[in-house]
Amino acid sequence: MESLMRHRRARRRKKLIVGGIVCAIVLVGAIAWGVSKFTGNAGGDDAPQLMTTFVDRGDFTEAVEASGAAKPVTSVVVNPEVGGTIETVNVAEGDAVQEGDVLLTVKNDELDKAIRDAEMGVRNAKLGVSQAQSTYDTTLDAYNKIEEIKDEEGNVIEYKRGAEGSDVDAATFAVESARNSLSDAQEAYSIAVANAEKRTVRAPKSGSVVVMNAQVGASTDSAANAGGLIQIADLSQMTVKVQVNEVDISRVSVGQMAKATFSALPGVELDAQVTRIATVAGSGEDSHGYGGGVVTYDVSLLIPQPAAELKPGMTANVQIMLQSVPDTLMVPSSCVAMDETGSALLANRVRSLLTILGIVIGIAAVIALTSLIDGMRAAIVGQLGLNAARTVEIVCWPPNNRQLTEADVETMARDLAGDYDFITCYAYARSSVSSSTSTSEEMDITACDEKFFEARGLKAEKGRVFTAEENEESSMVVVLGGASVKKLFGRADADAVGKTVRIGNDTYTVVGTLESDSIQGDWCVAYIPYRTAKVRLIGQQSGAMLSIFGFARENADIYGVAERTDSYLRTKYNISEADPDGGGGSEEGYCYISTAQSMLDQLESTMSSFRLMAFAVAGISLLVGGIGIMNMMLTNVTERIREIGLRKALGAKRADITAQFLLESIAICIVGGVIGVAVGYGAAWLLAGFAGSSLGYENLVPVITPQTALLAAGICCGIGVLFGFYPARRAARLDPVEALRYQ
Q1: Given 26, 546, 624, 716, which residue has the most CB atoms within 10 angstroms?
Q2: pLDDT of residue 105
Q3: 535-586 pLDDT tens trace
Q4: CA atoms within 13 A on the CB side of 683
Q5: For residue 41, is pLDDT > 50?
Q6: Residue among 451, 467, 459 nearest 548 (CA)
Q7: Residue 376's closest CA among 126, 688, 588?
Q8: How many CB atoms lie within 10 A of CB 168?
Q9: Spatial contact of 55 and 329, defined as CB atoms under 8 Å apart
Q10: Could you tell me which of 556, 589, 560 has the C-alpha nearest to residue 572?
Q11: Helices (H), 46-104
Q12: Average pLDDT over residues 394-413
């Protein structure tokens, strides 16, 4: 049987080698065909062909275009200072008003009542003053009147006043209090009158009514909530704020003249002038300006003489004049436009193809190695299971070579319930397995409970896994792995559910088969309930080993859980920190805790090292390819000096020529990158076949992540810019006169 497996692997490896050779032949043939196809016109004249065209004569103007909303220079919103109901409205929208004109009046019953109450208070206060003054006069007269008191003989024995001095003082205080009350009442009356005057709303400044929300009978509060009752604006001058992008802002200055047209007023064109330029960039998201995240600057323009029909809020289309040249010849933009990238590359097809080989090889190496590494990582993680990061393997031998029992595991699960969803035990054993259609085969037997499948991420493809009740009752049931189904029933897709197999000396009923795990290859395994195996199988094998694992709680710190578990076991069973070499079973005891997360971390570190090595190897090829691109671009510049001189003489700027040659360089790199991605992905599948056969990973699938594709695109653009910048700048700095003289 083992020789048969080796024969199958060799045959699969042979198929992959043949497929790789065929792909290589097809690729080489395609490149050879392309070279022969492109070479057909390579011997012609590579110089650009000049054409004649018509030119115009007239006034030339250059302007920056933008748009914004027209607004008055100054405006004021008028709202009553008091609430109430609008009684009269004296103006309409569009009316011109002068400062102090009555705009509207407000009816407010509370203010009228306040005036009446204040008048009543004044009258009462005046009456109080009169009464206090009368009392004072009476008391003072009585105080000034002196009465003689005589005895029986007629002799004067004392003099007595009609009122005491304290009475006069009290009367004086009463007069002052009454006068103070009168003063307060008069002040309250003045305030009530002043508040009543606020019912009349007057224009705070001269201008035109541009917003009118006031209606007779309406509440002032509801009208004000609509944005103000009345808005008065000075329409003798208006302003427009527009956004100019960072490319053009350096060409705009304060004082430049502009023309403003309006979508709502066809035929109206007004003069404007730049009055302010922002020094800090805006958000670039204004609905009237440049949007989409482009850096823009606010520019304010003044319209000194707006048209009478121009209304605030109308959209103004502004042209800020940068230059104006009268009576000039205007050459079509096609004469100086840099659209020769494609033709320049196609004119030198063979040279372009040979130049991109370095890029193709470098990108192919990056794609092939990274996709293969990511595929191996995905395969290993898939083998460990979806929940691998939460599993903790526990190995513990108390002193004197005592082995833990199920009771010990149950106690451990209770004591560590805060860290684990569950802790369970399982065992591995070997036994002969056969079916009615196969001979006896030695297979790995895993004795476990139903929780084992959840923790390992194993799912039933057909049927089900066994239940907790079947484990407790030591039921004679079995779950087969994908390779085991093929071994026992002839086909991997055979329906084994309900059939029986013989394990050792006992017969078991198949209740489910697991999804095929490509990473396991031909590994055959069967799963039976732990309690069944304990009675029927493990007790018969001295080599069977009890293993323990825990399933940590979700989002738990797996390393902290492992550390607490280790501390718990060492304390409970008095195991020293220094474990003896060679593992468990010692007299002093042994404890070892391992996590799948640590394996994943180590795997990620190893894969990162492989990626770094792959990038280093591919970087050499990319460097060579970049140097080749620079060499080709310098050759292009030399061959097209007269063309460059002609374009600069017709008005092409340095930035235009730089952009053209940079675009050519980037285009070459992107073409090489696309080919490299395709070649790299094919090479990754070829390498995956070799790796799968050599390492035992069947059907290993390369993985190209979006990050890898974006990285390849970024590398191509970066190489194009890096190695194409110097030739592009060299072409842009050529003197047009000297370039036209070049032979």
Answers
A1: 716
A2: 87
A3: 888 764 444 457 888 888 888 888 888 889 888 989 888 888 755 444 444 5
A4: 21
A5: no
A6: 451
A7: 688
A8: 17
A9: yes
A10: 589
A11: none
A12: 84
CA Rg value for the chain? 49
Kindly tell me if the per-residue pLDDT of 44 is higher than 80: no
With tokens 């001189």, the residue in question is: 645
Are 372 and 77 spatial neighbours (Cβ–Cβ below 8 Å)?
A: no
For 607, half-sphere exposure in the C-beta direction (CA atoms, 13 angstrom radius) is: 19
Cβ of 220: how many Cβ atoms within 10 Å? Answer: 22
Q: How far is CA 648 from CA 277, 335, 645, 682, in A?
A: 32, 11, 5, 46
Helix (H, G, I), strand (E, B) or coil at 594: strand
Q: Name the percent of the chain lying above pLDDT 90.
A: 8
At residue 301, the pLDDT reads: 92
**How distant, in Å, are the alpha carbons of 5, 375, 435, 507 from that of 1?**
6, 30, 17, 24
Name the β-bridge partners of 525. Answer: 444
What's the pLDDT tens digit per position in 120-142?
A: 888 888 888 888 888 888 887 77
Does the predicted TM-score (pTM) go above 0.85?
no
Using an 8 Å Cβ cutoff, are 497 and 457 in contact?
no
Record the tokens describing residue 499, joined without a space: 């059939």
Render pLDDT for 611-655 as a digit per residue (tens, 0 to 9): 787 777 777 878 888 888 888 888 888 888 888 888 887 778 888
CB 420 within 8 A of CB 554: no
Dihedral sign (CA 128, 133, 138, 143): positive
Can you say how many angstroms the Cα of residue 136 is from the centroid of all Cα atoms in its chain?
Answer: 87
d(CA 172, CA 143): 13
Question: What is the rounded distance in angstroms from the CA atom of residue 492 to the CA atom of residue 643?
Answer: 69
For every residue of 354-377, DSSP letters joined together read HHTHHHHHHHHHHHHHHHHHHHHH
Round to whole Å and give the CA distance between 601 and 598: 5
Give ∠ CA 236-237-239 in degrees, rounded to 5.
Answer: 150
CA of residue 49 relative to chain centroid, distance: 49
Of 302-306, 499-503, 539-543, least confident by mean pLDDT is: 539-543
Instruction: Give the integer Cα–Cα distance in Å for 7 and 229.
Output: 94
Q: How many CB atoms lie within 10 A of CB 152?
A: 5
For the chain, helix (H) and strand (E) counts, in that order, are 18, 23
For 13, other C-beta atoms within 10 Å of its C-beta total: 15
Q: What distances in angstroms separate CA 392 from CA 45, 165, 389, 550, 552, one per listed residue?
A: 73, 106, 8, 5, 7
- In three-state secondary structure terms, 199 is coil
User: For residue 48, what is the DSSP state?
Assistant: P
Model pLDDT, residue 739: 77
Element (H, E) at 12: helix 2-39
Take residue 628 and report the two structure tokens written for it. Answer: 């080749």
Residues belonging to the chain? 743
Q: Which residue has the tokens 């007023």?
A: 265
> What sections of 145-236 are H helices per DSSP?
165-197, 220-225
Looking at this protein, which amino acid is placed at residue 140? L
CA dist., res. 347 & res. 340, Å (int)? 10
Q: Are 13 and 693 in contact (CB under 8 A)?
A: yes
Give the position of tokens 């895993």.
446
